[in-house]
Design goal:
Largest sheet: 6 strands, antiparallel
Distance between the termini: 68 Å
CATH class of the largest domain: Mainly Beta
Helix content: 25-40%
Shape: elongated
CATH superfamily of the largest domain: ibrinogen binding protein from staphylococcus aureus domain
Number of helices: 11
Strand content: 15-25%
Number of strands: 19
Radius of gyration: 37 Å
CATH topology of the largest domain: ibrinogen binding protein from staphylococcus aureus fold
Structural class: alpha+beta
């Protein structure tokens, strides 16, 4: 630390901070310029837990593309334009302190770099060594934390800033600066008369102004890049694995649907058999055994029935089911081919990730629509939006854009009907069965509801009731002003003073469109 601090001190004394380049998540590069001299000097402070380091920067650095956190923004606001005073080690530990004067805020500032491996940190100090900000705050709720904003900074117990600056190691001390390790495993463990000669011999000729920095940058910089690549590879691999699992799950589901859809011929046959024996059916029957003229040879077939349905309703149920399965068979084949292609593409990207740059693999996956663009982190100092107040209903959109509200539970049904609906709104509920209250919003007084949206609302009333999946249903329809709450009645129970009953034949495509229109409830709740 002492040798690095002396090297940086020589390069940067009296320089002005022209720019502070933030490299999240843990690095900053100080761009310094000297009066009367051409060019700039760069110093890197890194609290990267994989390779924390301090050195003069020689390599070009790619700039960060994206938002910066509050710590980096504060460093730039309080230090850019300031004059470099000194870089000193804190006695006895891996801590460097960089002091500044003539700052934009008019007070001296110090930037402390603690090189404690996975606990590395950057700390901004103000007057009286008070901690103004820090890169990595202590864990929430931790007692007796050493680094606390608003309190005086203190070094770990074995180091003390008040103990003064550490002296530069003597030139004959091989334990501090000597180079037997750098010279190779067979080198004699004796230090040369001037250890700096060994560093100069290893560094390129043009870098001899900061040979120790060059060695630190070459060794730890490469280590940091490898660690960063490993982290990025792991992150992209996890994203691909999640997508691949979902794609495989979709393939399995489509294969099951395909198998079920191929059963449409059997369902149609049973419909034809029921049609031939329709006169034998009666409401309340759970099954019937009939002659199976499709199998021949006097074979019999037992067909399951819905006891609550009439003979004609049971017959229609079979033919509707057969048509649905036949349509699904035609669509599932194409969907399955696409899903299998997606699995193959994701598997190829997963295999390619072992040898390729993770960023290029991710970019390729995003371009091909196999991954969504990675989300950009929101700076931590943004105030989180207050959660939207809970409303007692789910909101869907009708065919003409009107809002259809569906109560969440019995208590919410009452709130929806009597607090979140107006007198002219349409109120719907399944006849003779429990279920959610449904309100079709009518925006203009005296306006009649759109017939198509009325059918939409009725579909939702059936879907959010025990009749979900039925082919036919009966639905109460009334104006909200015709709905009344009896005194002392339990939650969700109401009476009607008007309205009508809608005989509804369920349309799966319509219901699918409606469920896909689900959205967070909007509009004012003050009405």
């Amino acid at each position: 630390m002492a040798a690095l601090a002396r090297e940086i001190q020589t390069l940067a004394r009296g320089a002005r901070l022209k720019e502070l380049v933030a490299l999240p998540p843990a690095d900053v590069v100080l761009v310094l310029e000297q009066d009367g001299e051409r060019g700039v000097r760069r110093v890197r402070l890194s609290a990267d837990p994989e390779a924390p380091r301090l050195h003069a920067q020689h390599e070009r650095t790619e700039r960060h593309d994206g938002p910066l956190g509050p710590f980096f923004r504060r460093l730039a606001a309080e230090l850019v334009g300031a004059t470099f005073v000194e870089c000193t080690p804190v006695a006895g530990d891996r801590i460097a302190l960089v002091e500044w004067r003539d700052t934009p805020v008019g007070e001296r500032r110090a930037l402390v770099l603690e090189l404690f491996g996975r606990h590395a940190n950057l700390v901004l100090l103000g007057r009286g060594d008070l901690v103004l900000d820090l890169l990595v705050p202590p864990p929430e709720g931790k007692r007796d934390a050493r680094l606390v904003v608003g309190k005086a900074w203190s070094a770990p117990a074995k180091a003390s800033r008040s103990g003064g600056r550490a002296a530069t190691p003597p030139s004959g001390d091989p334990a501090k600066v000597g180079s037997p390790t750098l010279a190779g495993p067979d080198a004699a463990p004796t230090a040369p008369a001037d250890p700096w000669l060994a560093l100069r011999a290893l560094a390129p000729a043009r870098e001899t102004a900061a040979p120790l920095s060059w060695l630190v940058e070459a060794a730890l910089g490469a280590q940091a890049r490898e660690a960063r690549t490993a982290r990025e590879t792991k992150r992209v691999a996890e994203r691909l694995a999640r997508k691949l699992e979902r794609a495989r799950s979709l393939v399995r589901g489509l294969e099951q649907r395909l198998g079920a859809s191929r059963d449409f011929e059997r369902v149609r046959e049973e419909g034809e058999l029921l049609k031939a024996h329709l006169h034998e059916l009666a409401r309340g029957m759970t099954s019937i055994e009939v002659d199976d003229f499709f199998a021949g040879d006097g074979a019999k077939r037992r067909i399951a029935l819905e006891a609550k349905l009439s003979p004609h309703e049971n017959l229609e149920r079979f033919f509707d089911r057969a048509k649905k399965l036949e349509r699904a068979l035609q669509a599932v084949d194409a969907e399955l081919a696409l899903a299998r292609g997606k699995v193959a593409a994701l598997e190829a990207l997963e295999a390619r990730l072992a040898d390729a740059d993770p960023a290029s693999v991710e970019a390729d996956a995003v371009e091909r629509g196999l991954l969504e663009p990675a989300q950009t982190a929101v700076p931590a100092d943004r105030k989180p939006k207050a959660p939207a107040p809970r409303v007692p209903y789910k909101s869907f959109q009708g065919a003409r854009g009107s809002e259809i509200r569906v109560g969440r539970n019995a208590k919410d049904n009452d709130a929806l009907t009597f607090k979140h609906a107006r007198g002219n709104d349409l109120w719907l509920h399944t006849a003779d069965t429990p279920g959610s209250h449904v309100v079709l919003r009518i925006d203009e007084r005296g306006k009649e509801p759109d017939p198509d949206e009325l059918v939409d609302a009725a579909h939702l009333a059936v879907h959010f009731s025990p009749l979900r999946g039925a082919g036919r249903a009966r639905v109460h329809v009334a104006r909200q002003k015709e709905v009344h709450k009896p005194r002392g009645a339990k939650a969700g129970l109401v009476t009607l003073s008007g309205g009508k009953i809608l005989e509804l034949r369920l349309q799966p495509e319509r219901l699918q469109r409606l469920l896909g229109s689900h959205r967070p409830p909007g509009g004012s709740e003050s009405e």
